[in-house]
From TrEMBL:
This is Uncharacterized protein. It comes from the Bacteria. The lineage of its organism: Bacteria, Pseudomonadati, Pseudomonadota, Alphaproteobacteria, Rhodobacterales. Gene3D superfamilies: Vaccinia Virus protein VP39. InterPro entries: SAM-dependent_MTases_sf. It comes from Roseovarius ramblicola.
Amino acid sequence: MRDALRSEFEAKDWSGRKVRSRSGAGSTLEATAALRAALPGLLARHNVRRFLDAPCGDWFWMQHVDLGDVHYTGGDIARDVLDTVRAEHAGPSRDFVHLDITADPLTQADMMMCRDCLFHLKWWLRWKFFENFAASGIPWLLTSMHHTPVNRRLGKNGDFAPFNPCAAPFNFPEPVGTIPETGEIDLDPAVLATARGRRQRSMGLWSRAQVVETLERHAAEEKAP
């Protein structure tokens, strides 16, 4: 576990006067409505029996998802948040682990969801997460993507900038599936160039093979003269 990263996120509280969730505006029931509706079907289509959700945050919205008999593991780097969630929500098919997704071995699963996290990390830590995911052997990655054409660097971890894994320098292939979270997505370049366009976001689904291919290409580019 990276202690500096843990300290950064343990100090974070994105709740506010109008947002009850400590995890912020993206974790309200309104913001997660489309994902909550689509997630059970997605898990069923991909025969997911073990589901890793990291970071799981304060579990404000996930408690309203019908996971059926899927074994759920939530992981988070913030110990105080995790301890509270574990005390309130752990059960026979639901457990919670203290986890740094960029450094710690990932719990075995059939699919991992990493929502509202990577856009808070510096680029090198995003690469470290993708390497960690690839090493885990988990077949599927479901993660946040903004439909922005340009990725902007962060000044420090914990800041925010829209993140599109398909844009440079990450250049992921197109996801095998998406769950739009902000309504119908308009990919017209003229729209994407606007502030409204850059706020459009989805959950994108990539296979482990796609992640590995991207990492191999990135490694080759790093070695190139």
